[in-house]
Automatic annotation (TrEMBL):
Species per Swiss-Prot/TrEMBL record: Jaapia argillacea MUCL 33604
The protein, known as: Major facilitator superfamily (MFS) profile domain-containing protein
Any single GO CC term annotated in Swiss-Prot or TrEMBL for this entry: plasma membrane
Annotated membrane topology: Multi-pass membrane protein
Domain of life: Eukaryota
The UniProt record lists the keyword Ribosomal protein: no
Region (Disordered) location: 442-468
Xref: Gene3D superfamilies: MFS general substrate transporter like domains
Subcellular location: Cell inner membrane
Skewed-composition ranges (Basic and acidic residues): 450-459
Membrane-spanning ranges: 17-38, 58-77, 89-105, 117-138, 150-172, 184-203, 287-316, 322-345, 357-373, 388-407
Length: 468
């Protein structure tokens, strides 16, 4: 059997691995900045266009609705043409959407902003499918969640930079009621996208193929993963991601309104600044999560964080004054690891379905399209504080997914607190099952052995038991 075309992260030299990791990680900063500005524009447009909180969530509907529509297509595109071309397409759409913010601001058209945001969302959906999937498979599955948390930590850095910029230039002086600053900020964002596109064109980014990934998991005794519709961990991961992202986006969309309405004398400018501090808390939590995920099983840690998110979201909806503000900061901290953990747990060991599965999980970001609208309707009808009951449902769904994975693992192989290298465990099982050689032909699903067929059947059963 000829070796599979392409490579895997574990086959790269240390230098090429570090280069690929750093280059793809730069993409996380790109969409973190755009996302950080989005929630601030939500409040800014309420003032400039004299629209309600519910109407302002059209931005979230366009941005996250683009993920729902475009992410599956992006996964299919990269399955055929590879990660690098997918990154080029994503950066191109991202820059194009940002450029159209200029005429929208110039002619004061809220609909233009909504349309431009949709195009940006399509670009970022493509980048998320590429970057999240690439980082997840760029090495051992044991550290996939830690790697993705580290890379997405830079998304958090950019996320608090957006509100910080807004607090200085969107809400002060004449900028509080105009869009002059918005158009220049987004022209700079478009320029950043163009520069990154040029850098990726001239850089040698190693292509990690699904054939190579399939061969890698075959080497440790994992049989054919079966059709895509049977990848229940991935399908339920999409449900969990849809619910979680919807909750996260709803929480962030009304932070400025929530802080101003708390009755403790917080202005819009000060609220935007505090929002950036919330994002700093989120980012710090993500880097702390990198350390924790080296030692604690990702599904178990996600279960704990999901329960904490549920509790503090309820706290935000009920507590008044600075008590609610404190619960809000805690909520941002415990949100930190959720998205990367759901992604890596849902796409683990998919083999030939890796890119398609990545597209499905990223499609879950579309949950951010309708949660803010539901929350905005409740905020208009009751209060911003009470509207934070809406995200609670999303955190509960995410927690059930994580707890389900923990229970499933406990039933099959016993309860596991520590994070373990499953590939190493399976290789050891294969070696024990085949003492004559313990080796697989590279890229094959049969073993070199002189063991009689009757003994081989028992050995294969041992391997399949470890797979469970």
């Amino acid at each position: 059997m000829s070796p599979p075309v392409g490579t895997t992260g574990s086959q790269l030299s240390r230098g090429r691995w570090a280069f690929a990791f750093a280059l793809v990680t730069s993409l996380f900063f790109t969409w973190g900045f755009a996302y950080g500005l989005l929630d601030v524009l939500n409040a800014h447009f309420q003032t400039v266009f004299h629209i309600t909180k519910l109407q302002s969530t059209l931005l979230q509907l366009a941005y996250f609705g683009a993920y729902f529509v475009y992410a599956p297509f992006a996964g299919v595109f990269m399955k055929r043409y590879g990660y690098k071309r997918g990154i080029h397409m994503g950066l191109g759409l991202y820059s194009l959407g940002a450029i159209f913010f200029w005429p929208s601001a110039k002619f004061q058209k809220y609909g233009g902003f909504v349309g431009s945001t949709f195009v940006i969302g399509c670009g970022l959906a493509t980048l998320e499918v590429a970057a999240n999937s690439y980082i997840a498979v760029l090495g051992s599955p044991k550290h996939a969640a830690a790697r993705l948390n580290f890379s997405q930590g830079f998304q958090g850095v950019a996320s608090f930079a957006g509100p910080m910029i807004a607090s200085k230039w969107f809400f002060l002086g004449k900028n509080a009621t105009t869009l002059d600053t918005v158009q220049w900020v987004y022209l700079a964002v478009a320029g950043l996208g163009v520069v990154l596109n040029i850098l990726f064109f001239f850089c040698d980014l190693p292509e990690i193929t699904e054939d190579a990934l399939t061969a890698e998991i075959a080497e440790v005794g994992i049989k054919d993963v079966g059709p895509f519709w049977k990848q229940y961990r991935c399908i339920f991961g999409w449900v969990a991601q849809t619910s979680y992202v919807g909750a996260q986006v709803g929480v962030a969309a009304f932070v400025v309104n929530f802080l101003v309405d708390q009755g403790v004398g917080i202005s819009q400018s000060r609220a935007s600044q505090l929002f950036s501090y919330c994002q700093i808390t989120f980012t710090g939590g993500r880097f702390i999560g990198v350390v924790l995920l080296h030692f604690i099983d990702p599904a178990l840690l996600l279960s704990f964080y999901g329960i904490c998110c549920t509790a503090f979201a309820i706290g935000v909806s009920q507590a008044t004054g600075y008590g609610g503000v404190g619960c809000l900061f805690c909520l941002f901290f415990f949100e930190s690891i959720c998205y990367p953990c759901i992604f890596t747990l849902g796409t683990k060991n998919l083999g030939v379905h890796t890119k398609r599965g990545s597209g499905l999980i990223v499609m879950g970001v579309g949950g951010g399209a309708w949660y803010p609208s539901a929350q905005g309707a409740l905020a208009d009808a009751a209060s911003t504080r009470r509207s934070y009951l809406v995200p609670v449902s999303g955190y509960i769904a995410m927690s059930l997914y994580a707890i389900g994975l923990v229970v499933d693992q406990a039933i099959k192989n016993g309860f596991r607190f520590r994070n373990v290298d499953e590939f190493a465990v399976k290789r050891a099982a294969v070696s024990e099952a085949y003492p004559a050689s313990g080796l697989l032909e590279s890229g094959e699903s049969t073993y070199r052995t002189k063991t009689p067929d009757s003994e081989k059947k028992g050995s294969v059963d041992m391997v399949e038991q470890v797979e469970g």
